């Protein structure tokens, strides 16, 4: 019965990872278009999927430990590859196929997430550059002496900073 639970859990993990890949591709489009409300909605959806994956991983570990217990073995942090060595060949083949499906979906998911990270970093650089261009200069010109304080000022402004701070 534990083998069935393990297969079912791995199948569910493949499905969730496929869904995460779809979300990651949607995020690329949304980030490129600068659609922040859609990005927030996708991130909430992604968070829900990740929470579900954590539960599936716990379930996978429990099924793995149950299989080991059925075989009379006690071992912690067992990988799927290690587990397959103690199973009959037909079960090994099915688990190997599920393992391959999982790795085949995780690799493009990682690549897509890295691309999204780069796009977001580029967007942040653009926003910071835009803010630097909008931020007023603090050069007082010839109207005041260096290090002189006006009667209404407790502290002089920092060099290079204006009174209008537009950091996000």
Key terms for this structure?
FlgN-like_sf, 4 helices, mainly alpha, single chain, FlgN-like
Short description, anyone?
The protein is mainly α and 168 residues long. The protein has helices at residues 2-33, 36-70, 80-84, 89-134. Helix 1 (2-33) packs antiparallel against helix 2 (36-70) and helix 1 (2-33) runs parallel beside helix 4.
Describe this entry's structure for a reader:
The chain is mainly alpha-helical. The chain has a single domain, classed as FlgN-like (Methane Monooxygenase Hydroxylase, Chain G, domain 1, Up-down Bundle), CATH 1.20.58. The protein is 70% helix and 0% strand. The protein has helices at residues 2-33, 36-70, 80-84, 89-134. Helix 1 (2-33) runs antiparallel to helix 2.
**CATH class, please?**
Mainly Alpha
**Helix content class:** over 70%
Order of helices and strands: HHHH
CATH topology: Methane Monooxygenase Hydroxylase, Chain G, domain 1
CATH homologous superfamily title: FlgN-like
Poorly predicted regions are none
Task: Give the strand tally.
Answer: 0
Approximate strand percentage: under 5%
Overall radius of gyration: 27 Å
How would a crystallographer describe the biggest sheet? none
Q: Write down the domain tally.
A: 1
Q: Distance between the terminal alpha carbons, to the nearest Å? A: 54 Å
CATH architectural label:
Up-down Bundle
């Amino acid at each position: 019965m534990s083998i069935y639970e393990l297969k079912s859990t791995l199948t569910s993990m493949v499905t969730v990872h496929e869904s995460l890949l779809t979300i990651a591709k949607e995020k690329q489009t949304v980030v490129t278009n600068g659609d922040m409300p859609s990005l927030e909605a996708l991130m909430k959806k992604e968070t829900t999927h990740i929470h579900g994956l954590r539960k599936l991983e716990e379930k996978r570990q429990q099924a793995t430990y149950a299989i080991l217990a059925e075989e009379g073995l006690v071992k912690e942090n067992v990988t799927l590859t290690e587990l397959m060595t103690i199973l009959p060949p037909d079960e090994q083949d099915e688990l190997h196929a599920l393992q391959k499906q999982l790795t085949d979906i995780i690799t493009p998911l990682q690549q897509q997430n890295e691309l999204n990270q780069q796009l977001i970093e580029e967007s942040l650089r653009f926003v910071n550059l835009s803010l630097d261009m909008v931020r007023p200069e603090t050069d007082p010109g010839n109207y005041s002496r260096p290090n002189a304080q006006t009667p209404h000022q407790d502290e002089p402004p920092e060099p290079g900073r204006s009174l209008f701070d537009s950091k996000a």
